[in-house]
Specification:
This protein is of the alpha+beta class. It contains 9 helices and 6 strands; from the N terminus they run βαββααβαααααββα.
Length: 216
Amino acid sequence: MKIDFVSDVSCPWCVVGLKSLQAALARLDDITADIHFQPFELNPRMGPEGQDIAEHIAQKYGASPADMARSQEALQARGEALGFHFDFARRGRIYNTFDAHRLLHWAREEGKQAALKNALFAAYFTAGQDPGNHEVLASVAAGAGLDPQRAREILASDEFSSEVRAREKFYSELGIHAVPSVIINDRHLIQGGQPPEVFEQALRQIAGQQSSPGSQ
């Protein structure tokens, strides 16, 4: 089963969605999934210095500090239930993530994309690190089993920029404007940070359709 997980590393609900998907797959011994992490930038024009998160949320979504606090409380509860710790006290700013997506593209070629994706989520949402900082990215890549020197070479160049832009354009033209968006076998779309049960039910149903007489 092919799964395209369209997301941004600065999207907290993408963490919830991924952990839920992974939990669902762990329950489905009869289903083998090949997950491709596809790029999406929530803030493609964000400068390298980033922006204060409360200011950003207020400007972009019109959310008040109370709204943000309620959202963070919900995310923390969902994260803890899925084995992921959100430390919002450390996440004071939001950053540009394009270079992180370039490394994820490279990591796919190295067979380490899932490891890097999970490490990037932890670096930003648990440790409060800047996912646009090249030294942070190289260190996270090393922790995911990738060559940090090769990561630095990629980050110092424009390598994989055109490939990432092409993938972003492809999903935008498909009508993907919110993340996480999970596309199964190029046909079935599940959006949002759904609970594991929703993914499990959908995956079972799709697998059943594949194995039924007359399915293609």
